[in-house]
TrEMBL record:
Name of a matching Pfam family: Aminotran_3
Record's protein name: Glutamate-1-semialdehyde 2,1-aminomutase
Recorded GO MF terms: pyridoxal phosphate binding; transaminase activity
Species per Swiss-Prot/TrEMBL record: marine metagenome
Cofactor: pyridoxal 5'-phosphate
Keyword Cytoplasm: no
UniProt keyword annotations, A-Z: Pyridoxal phosphate
InterPro entries for this protein: Aminotrans_3, PyrdxlP-dep_Trfase, PyrdxlP-dep_Trfase_major, PyrdxlP-dep_Trfase_small
Signal peptide stretch: none
Keyword Heme: no
Length: 272
């Protein structure tokens, strides 16, 4: 059975779900079936290329390729939400990381180094509709000078091959992930750590795999994670309460070591 749309906020109209088909992620058969049965209704498929807001789930081998091929065959658009993955996992976003180019993609957050900006990118054919006025593109702060200057500076910095920002972030993140995994194995803490490195997620699942939203909800223990967050805070380490961890260029080797030291102490106390 396919997942049913559920509003995440009050004020959502009952009929707002009528134009949506929600599918389980990483499910090849679900994509195949819905395109076969309802392909004429599908204008676009929109997804995070890495499910950062849902335990940082990585796509199964071939899954993103399957999405792109299915969309191409059906003359539908593939849209990547790269608001989190953009410029974190790779200077060209997750699409460069995986080698899959969507028809449209959204970016924000890291694009301007913390200044407010949102970006829509796409093929020349699609984006020309905006330039021609066929599709309206309105915004109170469009081309805001401060944000544009910050974006330009950030893009120049991220594309500088000598600085190699993304390599540093992913290397630091992978070191932190491995350290947490080693502590988890030693203490049998029941943690799941997954993601590419510069962004990853930590949850308590007692070893159960998390491969889509449903398995994330069913297998994760948010109460245990909340205790972990609170105890880490007491030791001077602030981590996101949603389970997602981000690396920044400001982080150092010392930050990694102090985080691992605190995590070891906290997990040891939680096991008692």
């Amino acid at each position: 059975m396919l997942p049913q749309p559920e509003p995440m906020s009050q004020g959502v109209a009952d009929n707002s779900e009528s134009g949506l088909i929600i599918l389980p992620w990483n499910n090849f058969e679900a994509i195949k079936t819905v395109f076969e049965e309802r392909g004429d209704e599908i204008a676009a498929v929109i997804t995070e290329p890495i499910m950062c807001n849902t335990n940082c789930i990585m796509p199964k081998p071939g899954y993103l390729e399957h999405l792109k091929e299915s969309c191409d065959r059906n003359d539908s658009l593939l849209i990547f939400d790269e608001v989190i993955t953009g410029f974190r996992v790779n200077s060209g976003g997750a699409q460069s990381f995986f080698g899959i180019t969507p028809h449209l993609a959204t970016f924000a957050k890291a694009a301007a180094g913390g200044f407010p900006v949102s970006i829509l990118t796409g093929s020349k054919e699609i984006m020309s509709l905006i330039g021609a006025g066929t599709v309206m593109h309105g915004g109170t702060l469009n081309a805001n000078v401060m944000s544009m200057a910050a974006t330009k500076s950030s893009m120049e910095h991220l594309s500088d091959k000598e600085i190699q920002t993304n390599k540093k972030l992913n290397d630091l993140g992978q070191r932190l992930m491995k350290g947490l995994q080693d502590i988890n194995s030693r203490l049998e803490a029941g943690m799941l750590i997954q993601g590419p490195g510069s962004v990853f997620a930590v949850s308590f699942t007692d070893g159960k795999e998390v491969f889509d939203y449903r398995s994330h909800v069913e297998n994760s223990d948010p109460d245990r994670y909340a205790v972990f967050v609170s105890e880490m805070m007491k030791r001077g380490i602030r981590i996101n309460s949603r389970g997602i961890w981000f690396l920044s260029e400001s982080h150092t080797d010392m930050d990694i070591e102090s985080t691992l030291s605190a995590a070891s102490e906290v997990l040891q106390s939680m096991a008692l």
